[in-house]
Each structure stands twice: as C-alpha cells, then as structure tokens.
Amino acid sequence: MAKVLPNLDSLSVQDLTQLIEEAEAKRAEKQESAKAALVEEVTAKAAQLGLSLEALLGKQAAPQINVRKVRGDVGKPVAVKYRGPDDATWTGRGRMPKWLTEAIERGKSKEDFAV
Questions:
Q1: Which of 50, 78, 90, 104 is the most buried (most CB within 10 A)?
Q2: CA Rg, the chain, in Å?
C-alpha cells in the first residue's frame, strides 16, 4: 500500500499550517487509542495472573525532576571569618573583597586577617 503525500511545494503557508494541525490531531488521536489498547492488553494479562493493574505496577513515587534541597541556614547571618582595616569584614563566602585582594597582592596572607 503506497502512501500518497501531498506536494508540499505547491501548498501555501496557510494550507501547510492546516495540514500540520490536522496531522498533529490525528497523531494524538492514534496515540490515545494505542495507549488505551495497551492498557487493556496489560490489564487482561494481569487478570490472567490474578493481579490488578494497580498491584502489577505497585506504588510508584512521583518522579522528582531538578529537585534541590533547601539549606537550613538560609537567611541566617554567617559568622565573620576575616577582619581587615577600618573594621571591614568578610565571611569567607562569595567573592573576596577588594581590601583583602589588595593586601594579598602586597604580600600578606588571608590568615593574617583571620578572626
């Protein structure tokens, strides 16, 4: 059985859009009917074994996608680890402050400013 496809070059943009919409609708319809047939087939086979479909599948956890744990200390103040000139401070998190970067360039070490 040969499939006859329309000549896409002869179709206008509007006709192509309509063809795409109809094809997507037909695809969704066929996918739903195939899904229903598969569920019916699996349910029948499970019944032959004396199982329900739910018992066959068991309890399934919902898939967790891109789930991150929230830190427990979010929003709480962080202790100061370094104190510099003019009482400038740094917790050790994030980008190193300019006063500490300049001090290190002059030959000091971070430990010289440790609290």
A1: 90
A2: 33
- Domain of 101 in residue numbering reads as 82-113
- Report, as an integer, the average pLDDT of 6-29: 92
| Range with the poorest average pLDDT among 29-33, 63-67, 94-98 | 63-67
Distance of alpha carbon 16 from alpha carbon 60, whole angstroms:
42
The torsion angle over the Cα atoms of residues 63, 68, 72 and 77, rounded to 10 degrees, is -160
pLDDT band per the 50, 70, 90 thresholds, residue 36:
very high
Show the CA angle centred on residue 84, arms to residues 81 and 86, nearest 5°: 135
Whole-model pTM over 0.70:
no
**Structural domain includes residue 1:** no
Number of domains in the chain: 2
